[in-house]
């Protein structure tokens, strides 16, 4: 999604879900300097094999806000797509917290 290419481009589409279930992850094709500060690391942390090591949704939002702030300060990259993405994520997070029937709330109560 970030690179503008489908994950596992050489794999048949029906095999991609199986790859994720087998804990395979697509390679980062772009050079690291193409990613905004910390995005690649955050993605890798979210893909950690051990769920307890993955960041929480709150931590992800906080890190994305920090990345957005850095981008806004440096203005070296176009940040408009990131801004709308952060706003959408923040709105989703807020609505899930206030909606006790959401999957997010359900999974926290287990």
Give me the secondary-structure topology.
Elements: H1 16-21, H2 39-46, H3 57-74, H4 80-98, H5 103-108
Helix pairs in contact: 3-4
Domain Serine-threonine/tyrosine-protein kinase catalytic: 3-64
Pfam family, one: PK_Tyr_Ser-Thr
Protein name: Serine-threonine/tyrosine-protein kinase catalytic domain-containing protein
Describe the structure.
It comes from Cucumis sativus. This is Serine-threonine/tyrosine-protein kinase catalytic domain-containing protein. InterPro entries: Kinase-like_dom_sf, Ser-Thr/Tyr_kinase_cat_dom. There is one protein chain. The chain has 110 residues and is an all-alpha fold. Helix 3 (57-74) runs antiparallel to helix 4 (80-98). The model is unreliable at 102-110 (pLDDT under 50). It has five helices and no strands. The chain has two domains: 1-30, no CATH class; 38-108, no CATH class. It has helices at 16-21, 39-46, 57-74, 80-98, 103-108. Helix content is 52%, strand content 0%. The longest helix is centred in the C-terminal third of the chain and has 19 residues, at 80-98.
Low-confidence stretches: 102-110
Instruction: Characterize the main sheet.
Output: none
Pattern of helices and strands: HHHHH
- Roughly what is the average pLDDT, rounded to an integer? 76
State the shape. globular
Question: Given the helix and strand composition, which structural class is it?
Answer: mainly alpha
Q: Tally the beta strands.
A: 0
The N- and C-terminal alpha carbons lie at a distance of 31 Å
Task: Report the helical percentage.
Answer: 40-55%
Content of β-strand: under 5%
- Output the number of helix runs: 5
Provide the gyration radius in Å: 16 Å
How many structural domains in the coordinates?
2
């Amino acid at each position: 999604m970030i690179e503008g290419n489908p994950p596992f481009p050489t794999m048949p589409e029906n095999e991609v879900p199986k790859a994720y279930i087998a804990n395979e992850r697509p390679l980062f094709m772009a050079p690291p300097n193409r990613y905004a500060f910390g995005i690649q690391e955050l993605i890798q942390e979210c893909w950690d094999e051990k769920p307890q090591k993955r960041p929480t949704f709150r931590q992800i939002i906080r890190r994305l806000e920090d990345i957005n702030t850095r981008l806004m300060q440096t203005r070296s990259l176009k940040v408009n797509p990131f801004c709308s993405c952060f706003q959408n994520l923040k709105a989703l997070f807020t609505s899930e917290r206030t909606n006790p029937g959401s999957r997010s709330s359900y999974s926290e109560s287990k």
